[in-house]
Design a protein that fits this description.
alpha/beta; Rossmann fold; 2 domains; 5-stranded parallel β-sheet; two-stranded antiparallel sheet; 7 strands; globular; binds zinc ion
Length: 246
């Protein structure tokens, strides 16, 4: 019982410690992470699939291909309803732990770190693109009730404030309580999200250029299903930006 409250107590009395390994932070430290932890984050900067933004594997890079126009196997074989997807960093190690703390342990302070990552990734990959609306991948109301917040809404809201782009609050709704995607394989994930979303304000998305935000993209099934619904309801185009790529 007492174990459950130890991290919260440490944070209460020692707020200037790295959230991951407890290292004391410098007075000018940002983001609640020590330098050593921060340095372990792998950012996605170049050599990505032009459609989905997944990093090119080393073996693929060695082939005789034009890296600038590289399309990954997944995008070659399946239909993307979004135009482009990009992510700030690889979903592993430090960033995986940070996202876990943010989503499941209510370390909301990490939103600042994720906001900076999304902003930098946006500038790098979508620099001159203009959007009419920012939207978040929705959570089922019951799950939101249990978790107390939808992490994607927080990310989307912070991002929209930074860029002065309108955030369409809860424009997408999750109408079915589906299983968590984390335990499913690629084809199960596709089935699991099929038809689970609806639009609360369909008239607001017509002819709009939309940037959809989420924390992690792995198989892209969830964002693709959201994009399909938006495009089917006459959105002009949908791009996707996530903090991490699995
Ligand atoms: Zn650390
Ligand atoms: Zn791809």
């Amino acid at each position: 019982m007492i174990k459950k409250y130890i991290p919260a107590l440490i944070n209460l009395f020692y707020p200037n410690h790295c959230l991951l390994d407890g290292t004391k932070l410098e007075s000018n430290a940002k983001f609640h992470l020590c330098e050593a932890c921060f340095k372990k984050i792998k950012f996605i900067t170049a050599s990505v699939c032009i459609n989905c933004g997944s990093p090119i594997q080393k073996e693929e890079e060695n082939k005789d291909i034009k890296v600038l126009n590289f399309v990954c196997r997944r995008c070659f074989h399946s239909k993307n309803w979004f135009r482009f997807a990009r992510s700030a960093c690889i979903y592993e190690g430090v960033i995986k732990s940070c996202i876990h703390l943010f989503k499941y342990k209510k370390k909301i302070a990490l939103r600042k770190l994720f906001a900076i990552f999304l902003i930098n990734s946006f500038k790098l990959h979508f620099g001159t693109e203009k959007y009419d609306l920012i939207m978040a991948v929705p959570m089922h109301p019951f799950k939101r009730f249990l978790r107390e917040f939808n992490h994607s809404e927080i990310l989307a809201c912070d991002f929209s404030v930074n860029f002065g782009i309108k955030y369409l609050k809860r424009g997408l709704k999750r109408t079915k309580f589906s299983k968590s995607q984390t335990i499913l394989n690629s084809s199960q994930r596709k089935k699991n999200v099929k038809g689970v979303f609806s639009l609360s304000k369909p008239h607001r998305i017509r002819r709009k250029k939309i940037l959809l935000i989420d924390d992690v993209a792995t198989t892209l099934s969830t964002v693709n299903e959201c994009a399909k619904l938006l495009i089917s309801n006459e959105a002009k185009f949908v791009d996707v930006l996530t903090v991490a790529r699995g």
